[in-house]
């Protein structure tokens, strides 16, 4: 049974998940690149795949290190399966890179729970989110997470509220300097960053509608149990679980305002939904029901390929 196989964290799970991600990546890219493949494109796509793979391991680290789930591998399996359910997320390289930096930032923010090296962690988080913004402007929405983390972890020193702006300023200065050296028009680049749209007709495809519906409906159902489960957590861990909910809300905001809606923007929901649904899978007492949910998520991308 697949639920039993991933119920305990084991090294073999990383191999299985990596192979799953590789299959999803290759199948998603095959139709687009099949006729244009050359050595340069091959190495470029290999680099993008490595970014995807590293995001899985960063995500696993932040979940296990901060006890956001029990000792199992459900979270990384779900994270990779979400890519399979919504393959457009694989096709947008800039959003993939932005998501990787957001995960790095989230890792630093949730580690504020220890109340150690606060200034360094705040600087790192703001720095990574600022880098992500260069690749995808609406990643900037996650700056809200920084100040939310300061509040939920009860960090009241006023100096700490200034640190994130220093991280942003550092990225701006470095980026502007590189653009000047490379003779790139800074203002033209900045003007092309911003843009938003409330038009959702671009998402009107069977694959995106079915995939997003399953993702959001399962996520919403699991959220009720997740919120209830927060009360049973140790007091020092509760803020971390609340930040996950906020990250999911911010992910939905990005989907709503994204200027070019093609399904790739759903990637920012993958991490929080994986955590929320993992916590739900952990409390399901009926093994058959847990097994059924996992198989639905596994079978969905296969069924979508046949549409």
Strand content: under 5%
Distance between the termini: 27 Å
- Structural class per helix/strand content? mainly alpha
Q: Output the helix-strand order.
A: HHHHHHHHHHHHHH
Protein model, in words:
The chain has 307 residues and is mainly alpha-helical. Helices cover 73% and strands 0% of the residues. The chain is built from 14 helices and no strands. Helix 6 packs antiparallel against helix 7 and helix 12 packs across helix 13. The two termini are 27 Å apart.
Briefly characterize the structure.
By secondary structure, this protein is an all-alpha fold. The protein is built from 14 helices and no strands.
Provide the descriptors you would attach to this structure in a database record:
single chain, 307 residues, mainly alpha
Question: Helices and strands in order, then pairings?
Answer:
Layout: H1 2-5, H2 11-33, H3 39-65, H4 74-85, H5 88-91, H6 93-110, H7 118-135, H8 143-152, H9 163-181, H10 186-193, H11 206-230, H12 238-257, H13 267-283, H14 287-306
Helix pairs in contact: 2-4, 3-4, 3-6, 4-13, 4-14, 6-7, 7-9, 8-12, 11-13, 11-14, 12-13
């Amino acid at each position: 049974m697949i639920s039993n196989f991933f119920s305990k964290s084991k090294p073999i799970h990383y191999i299985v998940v990596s192979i799953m991600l590789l299959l999803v990546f290759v199948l998603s890219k095959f139709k687009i690149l099949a006729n244009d493949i050359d050595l340069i494109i091959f190495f470029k796509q290999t680099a993008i795949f490595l970014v995807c793979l590293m995001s899985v391991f960063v995500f696993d680290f932040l979940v296990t290190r901060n006890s956001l789930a029990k000792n199992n591998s459900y979270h990384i399996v779900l994270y990779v399966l979400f890519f399979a359910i919504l393959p457009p997320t694989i096709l947008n390289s800039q959003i993939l890179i932005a998501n990787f930096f957001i995960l790095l930032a989230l890792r630093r923010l949730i580690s504020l729970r220890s109340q150690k090296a606060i200034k360094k962690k705040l600087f790192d988080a703001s720095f990574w989110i600022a880098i992500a913004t260069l690749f995808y402007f609406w990643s900037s929405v996650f700056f809200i997470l920084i100040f939310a983390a300061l509040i939920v972890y009860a960090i009241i020193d006023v100096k700490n509220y200034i640190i994130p702006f220093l991280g942003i300023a550092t990225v701006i200065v470095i980026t502007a300097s590189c653009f000047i050296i490379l003779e790139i028009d800074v203002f033209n680049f900045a003007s092309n960053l911003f843009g938003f749209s409330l038009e959702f007709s671009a998402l009107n495809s069977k694959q995106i509608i079915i995939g997003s519906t399953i993702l959001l409906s399962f996520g919403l159902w699991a959220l009720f149990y997740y919120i209830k489960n927060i009360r049973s957590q140790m007091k020092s861990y509760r803020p971390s679980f609340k930040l996950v909910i906020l990250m999911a809300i911010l992910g939905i905001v990005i989907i709503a305002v994204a200027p070019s809606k093609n399904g790739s923007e759903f990637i920012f929901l993958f991490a929080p939904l994986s955590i929320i649904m993992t916590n739900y899978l952990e409390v399901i007492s009926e093994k058959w029901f847990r097994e059924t949910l996992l198989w639905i998520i596994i079978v969905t991308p296969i069924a979508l390929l046949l549409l």
